[in-house]
């Protein structure tokens, strides 16, 4: 009888790929909420135990959310998109070429 914590006929390479896919999915869930998070932030800022909704406070909260999103998106662009290199070329076409090359080498598309 097999140990209950062991998976029979488990392939370590396949398990590693599944773990990587689950990790990527978790990152997508966390960062996918960036569109709705500002709404919850505004709601909790001016909620029952938050600050009073004066024009200055509303402008300050909206400014904080706006600049936080601008900085996060800019940093992601600088760190990821600007580092993409396709034989000395850059830009969105370079990213598409790199993505297509990655998909062609994927075992799922064969």
From TrEMBL:
Residues 23-105 form the K+ potassium transporter integral membrane domain. GO terms for cellular component: membrane. GO terms for molecular function: potassium ion transmembrane transporter activity. The chain crosses the membrane at residues 58-79. Keywords: Membrane, Transmembrane, Transmembrane helix. Pfam families: K_trans (PF02705). Belongs to the HAK/KUP transporter (TC 2.A.72) family. This is Potassium transporter. The lineage of its organism: unclassified sequences, metagenomes, ecological metagenomes.
């Amino acid at each position: 009888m097999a140990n209950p914590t062991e998976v029979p006929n488990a392939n370590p390479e396949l398990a590693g790929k599944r773990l990587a896919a689950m990790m990527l999915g978790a990152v997508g869930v966390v960062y996918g909420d960036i569109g709705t998070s500002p709404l919850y932030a505004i709601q909790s800022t001016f909620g029952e135990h938050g600050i009073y909704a004066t024009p200055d406070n509303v402008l300050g909260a909206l400014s904080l959310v706006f600049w936080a999103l601008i900085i996060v998106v800019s940093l992601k662009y600088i760190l990821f998109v600007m580092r993409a290199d396709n034989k000395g070329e850059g830009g969105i076409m370079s990213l598409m070429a790199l993505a297509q090359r990655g998909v062609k080498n994927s075992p799922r598309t064969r």
